[in-house]
Write a structure and sequence with these properties.
alpha/beta, 8-stranded mixed sheet, two-stranded antiparallel ribbon, 44% helix, SDR_fam, NAD(P)-bd_dom_sf
């Protein structure tokens, strides 16, 4: 009932973005389609100075850029008068399934941008069957390990922005209410990451848990960052946002019954991509009070009971994740 209330009632209450983003530089990953693209439209409409569309496919990214430019060719200023859009929109390559691409993107952010005010780690995927990328199950690589590798790589620029411009940047990680739909069967394993990557386990009877688990791990990680770096001593706000079930290409690889079931559910209750994008933009403008928090329906919400009741698992996962990131790029976890 809570899910249906969120999708059918709370959707109507999602605030339409109206803040000014003049002077700000905003990066959105996974922004050539769906929620990311719609969020980009809002930021351009509201006068962001610079917008970076981080995409895997540059051709699709440039097509999205042109569409955003056309859609926001003129915007309303604070007085309600129509004026020309002034946002500079760039398209940068980023493939979350490849650590080298994530590292190259992070280096480019550091080298080419003088500031980053809002960073949306929005790229993610649902896989219909077991596959591997960078030695892990693909969803674990994209939705979890690469997401936090990217976060670690861009945090120095966010912190520098805070110091130089006396502001508080925000790093928003797109999560999912799906994280509530698993009891996390691998949590009892001695080494959890190998267990969530095990093709005989994750790829077998527990495959239905794999996407929820990949998102659950991210909730644990953000809470670990907040535990290690509390709000009052940290210059950046890091939060999570669940956009709800939306019409998007997230499950574009679904097949057979899974595809039919997901299509029926979306037809019945899904938010539009624009409505879902409002939750992303809302999270991007939230105060320090949202640091380490999980947001849904444009307000702070409680994550699943599995998260709240397994602090020891959270601590073990944080140790494992940091070790994994250090193996990819030594020293990177000091950026947290």
């Amino acid at each position: 009932m809570g899910f249906l209330r969120s999708q059918l009632i709370e959707t109507c209450k999602l605030p339409y973005p109206s803040s000014s983003y003049a002077g700000q530089t905003i990066i959105i990953t996974g922004s050539n389609t769906g929620l990311g693209k719609e969020a980009a439209c809002h930021y351009a409409r509201l006068g962001a100075t610079r917008l970076i569309l981080a995409v895997r496919n540059l051709e699709k990214g440039h097509a999205a850029r042109e569409d955003i430019i056309q859609t926001t060719a003129t915007v309303d200023d604070e007085a309600g008068n129509e004026t020309k859009r002034t946002t500079l929109i760039d398209v940068w390559e980023l493939d979350m399934a490849e650590y080298a691409s994530v590292q190259a993107f992070g280096a480019r952010v550091e080298a080419e941008l003088d500031r980053v005010d809002i960073f949306h780690a929005n790229a993610g995927l649902v896989c219909p069957q077991y596959s591997r990328a960078e030695g892990n199950e693909t969803m674990i690589t994209v939705n979890y390990i690469s997401t936090f590798l990217l976060a670690a790589l861009v945090l120095p620029k966010l912190k520098a922005t805070a110091a130089r411009f006396a502001t508080r940047p925000t790093l928003v990680i797109t999560s999912s209410g799906a994280h509530e739909h698993t009891k996390f069967p691998q949590k009892a394993a001695t080494n959890i990451l190998p267990a969530v990557n095990d093709p005989n386990y994750a790829g077998g009877a527990h495959w239905k848990d794999q996407y929820p688990v990949s998102k659950l791990l991210g909730v644990f990680a953000v809470r670990s960052i907040m535990k290690e770096h509390p709000t009052d001593s940290y210059p950046v706000t890091i939060n999570l946002v669940s956009p709800g079930v939306c019409h998007s290409e997230l499950a574009r690889g679904a097949e057979g019954f899974q595809k039919v079931a997901f299509s029926v559910m979306k037809a019945a209750v899904a938010r539009t991509a624009e409505q879902g994008s409002r939750t992303l933009v809302h999270a991007g403008v939230q105060s320090a009070a949202s640091h380490g928090q999980y947001l849904a329906d444009c307000r702070v919400a409680q994550p699943s009971a599995v998260v709240l009741e397994n602090g020891d698992v959270q601590d073990r996962l944080w140790v494992e994740l940091k070790a994994k990131l250090e193996a990819i790029q030594p020293g990177v976890t000091s950026n947290f």
